Amino acid sequence: MTAQHGSTAITSGTTTIDSPTVDTVAVGTDVGPVVRRGRWIDHWEPEDAGFWAAGGRRIARQNLVPSIVAEFLGFAVWASWSIVVPQLGAAGFALSIDQQFWLIAVPSLVGATLRIPYTFAVPLLGGRNWTVVSALLLLLPASALAFVVSRPETPFGTLLVVAALAGLGGGNFASSMANISFFYPEREKGKALGLNAAGGNLGTAAVQLAVPIVIVSAAGLQLQRAGLMFIPLVLCAAVLAWRTMHNLTAAKADFRAFGAAAGNRHTWIISFLYIGTFGSFIGYSGAFPTLLNNQFPEVGLSVAFLGALVGSLARPAGGMLADRWGGARMTIAAFGTMAVAGLGAAAALRASSFPMFLASFLVLFVATGVGNGATYRMIPAVFRVGATTPERTARSRKAAAGCIGIAGAVGAFGGFLIPRGFAVSNDVAGSLQPALVAFVGLYLVMAATTWAVYRRRGAAMSAAGI
What we know:
466 residues; mainly alpha; Growth Hormone, Chain: A; 4-stranded mixed β-sheet; 18 helices
């Protein structure tokens, strides 16, 4: 059946109507979603097999693809300064090592801070509407970057403000994940959210690969293209979201879920662990091009994207390995690997060995990706413990959802801490090695924490096989 409203037509079991009110679809029927003006859907029952088959799955997929595209661009804009900063010297800017790491760290700080409010924007404005708005907001950091990098006389304070605008892209992850979670049934939510997250993370690798290519021209370095290239892409993403996505009336802000999660000690333990996994991925992704440029300038930036790429691709593998071996066990293994790789990177700096440095960091990135997936997989398992009744199960799911939001925001602060750690290490010791050794110590503490709380014999959580 096809119904037309203006330029909008939804087919194959989905009806478009003009009325602002829609009759409830009975659970257990084969009646699919009903879409009204503004592409709002008032009744959404993805757990109902008949509803899902009669159009629910099609609608969910229509929303997943543009969500991945928008989140991909959000991560790319968020990470844009990571690959721009090493090029600023060639563009005429005179910046200290400390100033370079500030420009890398500030986008992560802003992005992490925005994640909680961005999560609540979806229920307030609608998933489709907010995806369009949040995509268009990326025009601000992109155009501002293009403006300032072509003017070497720009004060450092102005550069810092423009770099902070890139944090708008970091908030997109939270709203995108929250929105997609409303569309899918529990049995398919893990796969959908995994694709959404992986698509976003790949934006970091993509921008680090594309910028060194785009900014080169016969006329010399054209660094402003690092911002200009996003403008048509952002506009296309906004149009795609506007034309194909939907808003769900049923998507409500659950402040109780955040309250329940905030009052549970496991939320903060997992958030601490997530700083070490996801925070390390973001932090190292941001710092890696500058580390290469400063420590091995003869190599160039042609391999800078590899770290973010292998880390992104390893994240789904971390989730699958956690399904098989347990999230806590794989998280411990990831931290152990990160510690060994961190020591290898420190040794490579002492020996001025680029092959050893690159290999150590690639192992480090793979371990952060595995750790991302494994730690994320722990959350529902931890909150299911003790859920012996349907009521407790429902409460545990809400608390787990709140924990995901909090941990995602707290973990992203690692993207600020790691570049600042490198800056302090360089200022105090004249070397990056102390920072790497300190990070190794933290990974060992995080591994010990995971074991003590979730795997140690006699621990309350150990019997649950987290």
